[in-house]
Design a protein that fits this description.
By secondary structure, the protein is of the alpha/beta class. The protein is built from 24 helices and 22 strands.
Length: 547
């Protein structure tokens, strides 16, 4: 795949997946079919073959593609149907509202996955306008696939069908909720099919298949199915759709649930939801204030090593000891010795933190370096007054790693470091009397270790490509934990065990104390929570399910 393809969000579907979606979507010789972003034509080829096998003509097949090279490749492939050629348009899909197309029985395809950072300007405005014309208001922070799906349905006839490959964000992202509501209002039923193996191994984004049918028919339900991999699609696709389990659409659309909730056993989900109402559980946001760490705007300039401090003779008055990233973490306590080790490895050091006025000549010299002058073009620095003063620099008693491959850490800040926005600051509410003022951080950090809280981070957070789990402040506030007012583990003992990689022992200690001792759960119930944690963690990191 070329860099230009990635820039446009063009990730082409395999012929195997395209054939399966087309077989499901096209059911008669007379079906009219549209691929609104046909790329190199894999869906159109499958559609032509399918219609002809049913006794129809490829004249009923339509495709749209903007990029010239892809359009030419597709035109060349479809030239074999010269007797009854499909219709291929070179155009921007969002610009075709005035082009006459017949009402479609099926829309199939794989829309471009352009994230909102690159989906901007006139293209974004036009896409959002088309979605608004159909009756759906989508956030400007959306990726391109969302308005694409909505506008594609505009071309469907009554009782038509939609079959698309989409990002898993449709069942997870806040901006996708209007799309879910639109599907609920527009189709009789919609089935979401997720996979343990990635449909696009080279794409740093997880995907699923959406099969929606009964356009403009009374709503019957949302359904969900999870398959091992692409090979499973070779079975009868109608059976896959009909054997999927029904899921509640209201909490999905409202954001109370997401795809992660759908992937654990229903009995475990019922247990989890029952525990959210337990008098001895709380959400993290109920007992603490959670904020993003500081944003320097130029970490390479403001994050300093010992060597840089010595080289430029920067005074202690403008330096704050700092942690830079989660590679510095070794356990639930971040100590002064941890900071020293991390500093030697480049994962911690100092933050250049200057007040309103620069009073030292060496600081003036450092700020006037050529490298600094080039930084002034950056938005954060350009809009800051003065540009070198970083707002929001604090020493939190605890801090949270907001993105992780294995687990999200809640850390007691024994080294009194300031934390950048690779972490969230977590400050216990004084009025909650968590273990007394001095023990509040340790109480929070030990409660964080239970299987219940680990499962909650998986459910409330959201997954990114590469197996990463991310917790935004709003998501971190919803993480469930046993109330830290109920007592704590000896965090220093836990810290020693973690550094020996004795995670099983730590998990057993935490679950016995918090889940069995305080919540009075059975061993089986504790096992159910831990099994769900392992299931979601394995799925997130792309490991094939066993059994």
């Amino acid at each position: 795949m070329s860099d230009s393809d990635k820039e446009r969000g063009a990730y082409y579907t395999s012929a195997q997946v395209a054939r399966t979606l087309v077989r499901w979507a096209i059911r008669s010789a007379n079906d009219t079919v549209l691929d609104p972003s046909c790329g190199t034509g894999v869906f159109l080829e499958a559609a032509c073959s399918r219609v002809i096998s049913l006794g129809g003509s490829s004249r009923t097949i339509f495709g749209i593609e903007l990029e010239q090279n892809a359009y030419c490749q597709t035109a060349s492939k479809l030239s074999v149907y010269s007797k009854h050629p499909p219709t291929l348009l070179r155009n921007d899909f969002f610009a075709i509202q005035n082009i006459s197309l017949p009402a479609m029985k099926a829309v199939v395809g794989n829309p471009p996955f352009i994230r909102f950072q690159r989906f901007k300007g006139d293209s974004r405005r036009q896409a959002l306008d088309r979605a608004r014309e159909v009756g759906v208001t989508i956030s400007p922070l959306t990726s391109s696939w969302a308005p694409f799906v909505v506008y594609a349905c505009h071309f469907l006839q009554k009782d038509g069908r939609l079959a698309m490959v989409l990002p898993r964000e449709i069942l997870q992202a806040r901006y996708a909720r209007p799309v879910l509501e639109f599907l609920q209002k527009s189709f009789r039923n919609t089935t979401f099919i997720s996979f343990w193996e990635r449909l696009f191994p080279g794409l740093d984004q997880d995907t699923l298949i959406v099969l929606a049918e009964g356009h403009k028919q009374p709503f019957d339900g949302f359904f969900f199915s999870e398959l091992d991999g692409i090979d499973t699609l070779e079975q009868d696709e109608h059976e896959i759709a009909t054997t999927a389990r029904r899921i509640e659409h209201v909490p999905l659309i409202s954001g109370e649930r997401n795809i992660r909730h759908l992937q654990i056993p229903s009995t475990t989900l019922e247990l989890y939801e029952r525990l959210t109402l337990h008098p001895k559980t709380v959400r993290l946001g109920e007992v603490s204030q959670i904020k993003n760490g500081h944003v320097s705007g130029a970490n390479r300039f403001f994050h300093l090593s010992h060597e840089t401090v010595r080289e430029h003779r920067l005074p202690l008055e403008v330096l704050r000891v700092a942690i830079f990233n989660s590679r510095a973490l070794q356990g639930p306590i971040f100590s002064q010795s941890d900071w020293s080790v991390a500093s030697s490895q480049g994962n911690a050091g100092y933050l250049l933190h200057i007040g309103d006025k620069v009073v030292h000549d060496t600081v003036h010299t450092y700020l006037n370096r050529k490298e600094a002058l080039g930084l002034l073009q950056r938005y954060k620095l350009r809009t800051r007054k003065p540009w070198y003063r970083i707002p929001g620099v604090t020493v939190p008693p605890t801090f949270l790693s907001y993105m992780s491959g294995e687990r999200c850490w809640l850390i007691q800040n024994e080294a009194n470091v300031v934390v950048p926005n690779t972490f969230h600051t977590v400050v216990p509410h004084a009025e909650k009397n968590i273990g007394g003022d001095t023990n509040a951080p340790a109480s929070l950090c030990s409660s964080w270790l239970s299987s219940l809280t680990r499962l909650s981070t998986e459910l409330e957070g959201h997954t990114l490509g590469g197996g990463m789990l991310k917790l935004e402040p709003s998501e971190a506030k919803r993480v469930l934990l046993v109330s830290p007012t109920q007592g704590a583990l000896d965090l220093k003992t836990v810290n020693r065990l973690v550094r020996k990689d004795a995670w099983d022992q730590v998990q057993e200690m935490a679950d016995r104390h918090f889940l069995e001792g305080i919540l009075e759960l059975s061993e089986r119930e504790c096992s159910m929570l831990l099994e769900a944690v392992n299931l979601l963690s394995q799925e997130r990191r792309g490991r094939r399910r066993v059994g």
